[in-house]
Amino acid sequence: MSLTIGDIAARLGAEAAGDLSLQVARLRQPDEAGAADLALAIDPEFAEKLKGRAVRAAVVADGADWQAMGLEAAIFSGRSRYTMAGLSRIFDRDPAPAPGIHPTAVIDPTATLGEGASVGPHAVIGAHVTLGPRARIAGQVTIGDRVTIGADAYLMPGCRIGSDVTIGDRFIGQANAVIGGDGFSFVTPQPNKVEDYMAKGSITESLDPTEYVRINSLGSVVIGDDVEVGANSVIDKGTVSDTRIGNGTKVDAQVMVGHNVQVGEKTLLCAMTGIAGSTEIGNRVVLAGGVGVADHISIGDDSIILAGSGVTNRVPPKSVMMGYPALKQEVFMNIFKAMRRLPRLAEKVTDLQNRVSKPDHKG
Amino acid sequence: MSLTIGDIAARLGAEAAGDLSLQVARLRQPDEAGAADLALAIDPEFAEKLKGRAVRAAVVADGADWQAMGLEAAIFSGRSRYTMAGLSRIFDRDPAPAPGIHPTAVIDPTATLGEGASVGPHAVIGAHVTLGPRARIAGQVTIGDRVTIGADAYLMPGCRIGSDVTIGDRFIGQANAVIGGDGFSFVTPQPNKVEDYMAKGSITESLDPTEYVRINSLGSVVIGDDVEVGANSVIDKGTVSDTRIGNGTKVDAQVMVGHNVQVGEKTLLCAMTGIAGSTEIGNRVVLAGGVGVADHISIGDDSIILAGSGVTNRVPPKSVMMGYPALKQEVFMNIFKAMRRLPRLAEKVTDLQNRVSKPDHKG
Amino acid sequence: MSLTIGDIAARLGAEAAGDLSLQVARLRQPDEAGAADLALAIDPEFAEKLKGRAVRAAVVADGADWQAMGLEAAIFSGRSRYTMAGLSRIFDRDPAPAPGIHPTAVIDPTATLGEGASVGPHAVIGAHVTLGPRARIAGQVTIGDRVTIGADAYLMPGCRIGSDVTIGDRFIGQANAVIGGDGFSFVTPQPNKVEDYMAKGSITESLDPTEYVRINSLGSVVIGDDVEVGANSVIDKGTVSDTRIGNGTKVDAQVMVGHNVQVGEKTLLCAMTGIAGSTEIGNRVVLAGGVGVADHISIGDDSIILAGSGVTNRVPPKSVMMGYPALKQEVFMNIFKAMRRLPRLAEKVTDLQNRVSKPDHKG
């Protein structure tokens, strides 16, 4: 891959200066960049690292003195991370499967693939599947029966799409992600004693469930447009209705979304977050890494749950929560500060007790 | 799929009324159900949602006035979730592989498959494997050498069964689950300093292990009857003896069971729970979501560990535990309530100090 | 497999006594061992279990009276777990793929495989891949374009190596591990409000991100020599530079290493540990099970983070930390002990208030 500075600037919609015909092959950090690379030097601290290197071109902050940096050409960045998104598209060497259907792929004759779809080696596509145009199905993906996926999907190796799943446009499913696992739902012939005891906090007899009878998932998973699901994440099917993920929501790696969960739009579920069955997550919510959310509750729109928290109760919109059980961040921090002083507080109380008890205290 | 109300009631062992010859195609929630569906309206609240819809048949609570709901036929439910389990079997459209062995499957000539077994595309079955009757092996499953699995197994796409694993009847392994990963077990040439320092709480020199020498897993995994393992879960092999999962135990998605762990019967391991090496979990235990259990300890029969807890010590039978480190639920809740009042308590102590110190306090 | 006691002792570099020509087939715990097995009886407690069994040979502690145990031959152990590592290599029946390239494997003609490499059924190897000598690639592994892996690699079924990943010698990638997932990195057209609100702890308006624009991962993953990655773990690519894992570091199952993370040498990442983006983990660090580490921080060399902890700030070298947010172990334990007494402390304060307020207290 070799691109001119002028081309890159044009594709970014950014200003550029110097030798616009200069060609670069890769985007690199200043301390790893060579003469054939475009250095990423928006941050003044990084620009400093260009000194003494053979770098000829860089992306720099608006108004930066690129010539003083020893460059022959420069692209000016507006908002740095947004520029980064554009650059990452331009320089991406994404290992998409080669165009066309690999001869080892097993595709049911009733499946319909959109124009320009590619299917990699050993992929398996079931009956009555519909894939939109330009779908990129990597090797060893499986797609179950009656699945519908919109335009421009990209499924990475080992991604598993269960039967009856419906997904919108521009979906990305990373390696070994499972969309449409079976929900964890069992019933006992007699009334189950577990919930009683969880409420009471003590157990007086055996919990013997006689047997657990499985409730198969009759619902499936419905996913909107512009959704991504990270590597090894799992989204379970609903029991009767569908588990749902709204438009523009991004799911990181090793996330678990339980059966019947409803996730809104433009919500972020960061790595290792788990959402138990039938819970509703609103729009524009951020669940940071390692968050656990109990079943049958709701988290309101525009809320942020900080990393490692365990949410056990309904969260109103626009809340910032942390801890286990999760509390408002301000409340948690006040308690946490007081906890850090707790050993000292205990000493103070002992001291007070001594003083109040002493005869001579009484004057 | 089309079934009559009479057939469904007969298969459920339930009472029915009205036009028993009426045919329905799917089970649906009242607000999603149409004229061709059987609505699930056991809960009176859901029954209310039938109003104004074209629904002709529903499952209703015992004694419900189905004709007043505008229905032409009704099935009466006993215990609602148990009825649900039966309904979920009747309406299941489980994407089982087509009968027979797909020509792309690679099956070692020494493997033995029971009567009626089906094997999907690109599945790989190793040497000296024995599968019971009616096994359903989906596409892209791998089964290692010398594995034995009982009757009616269902392995979903990408499920990995390691070598020498033994599994009973009616096993379900969901997509990308790994049964028989290698245990995480390393040894250092010199005595390892880590445990000393963990006990002491301070580190005075480099932990340099020189090198970690791997202990290969010579044991395997032994799983009883009626066990299910969820998507992307991992059960590691034992070091010398086997890791064991008892009859009727259900393992949710993204659970991690370490080497040498012994799990009893009819126990539930909910999503994202991790059990460290050599720990014993009793019978009829519930580990709720996101629970961590330390190595070399035990959790007694009929215990419940609430979601997000970290168990660091032995738990007696019939305990309800929560928190990190986990405490009895009642103890935890008393502490948690006191913690919430802790900032106020600190103020009280400061106030007391002021009053006790003031000269005029002494009266 | 059948080995003589003499051969085993020689391979271990250990002393042996008795009938060195005696043959054994398997290594077993004393209570599971039979006449054809070598019993593992180093621990005196285990040696006791040999009584009354048909066992003829055992590994025993240095100086143990093997003849009194009823044995015909014995191997003497030095450091028991180190001996165990040697034994586990000798008795390993690791299901390596059969030598050679399985005809169903799909290997790009530009890939280069070292001498003695084996590739299992349905494996997929991309363009410009280089595998070192004796690589064992199990069935259904995928290796992306431009990947380089050193000598003696072992990739288990379903292991996914993303494009441009570089790995050293003696690498083990367990089943369904994903090396080189795409980083979770998104940018919004306007400045993102999430970080502001996380700092402030309260949200005053909608977080509406308009849209999340994806930053593709241009970096990849660089892994040193002697590294193992457990089942279903994920290591994400870097954004511009590479995510790095140092020599001799061992990663357990279901671990998540985020984009740009730098992990040092001989470090242990135990099961279900997650490290957020751009964080640096030093050398010889132990992150016990279920640890979460925030983004953009560092954990110093020779530190131990106890299981279930959440690390939110920089950790100096040689620290032992626990809790959430993680504190020094000693500090945490003091607070935890005080918390356990907190309900009693609150009573004391109430009692003091009563006494200080009472008129007769004033003497």
UniProtKB/TrEMBL annotation, chains A, B, C:
Its EC number is 2.3.1.191. Keywords: Acyltransferase, Lipid A biosynthesis, Lipid biosynthesis, Lipid metabolism, Repeat, Transferase. One of its GO terms (molecular function) is UDP-3-O-[(3R)-3-hydroxyacyl]-glucosamine N-acyltransferase activity. SUPFAM superfamilies: Trimeric LpxA-like enzymes. GO terms for cellular component: membrane. PROSITE patterns: HEXAPEP_TRANSFERASES. GO terms for biological process: lipid A biosynthetic process. It comes from the Bacteria. It holds the Pfam family Hexapep. The active site is at 259 (proton acceptor). It catalyses: a UDP-3-O-[(3R)-3-hydroxyacyl]-alpha-D-glucosamine + a (3R)-hydroxyacyl-[ACP] = a UDP-2-N,3-O-bis[(3R)-3-hydroxyacyl]-alpha-D-glucosamine + holo-[ACP] + H(+). Belongs to the transferase hexapeptide repeat family. LpxD subfamily. Catalyzes the N-acylation of UDP-3-O-acylglucosamine using 3-hydroxyacyl-ACP as the acyl donor. Is involved in the biosynthesis of lipid A, a phosphorylated glycolipid that anchors the lipopolysaccharide to the outer membrane of the cell. Homotrimer. PANTHER family: UDP-3-O-ACYLGLUCOSAMINE N-ACYLTRANSFERASE, UDP-3-O-ACYLGLUCOSAMINE N-ACYLTRANSFERASE 1, MITOCHONDRIAL-RELATED. HAMAP family: LpxD. This is UDP-3-O-acylglucosamine N-acyltransferase. It comes from Pontivivens ytuae.
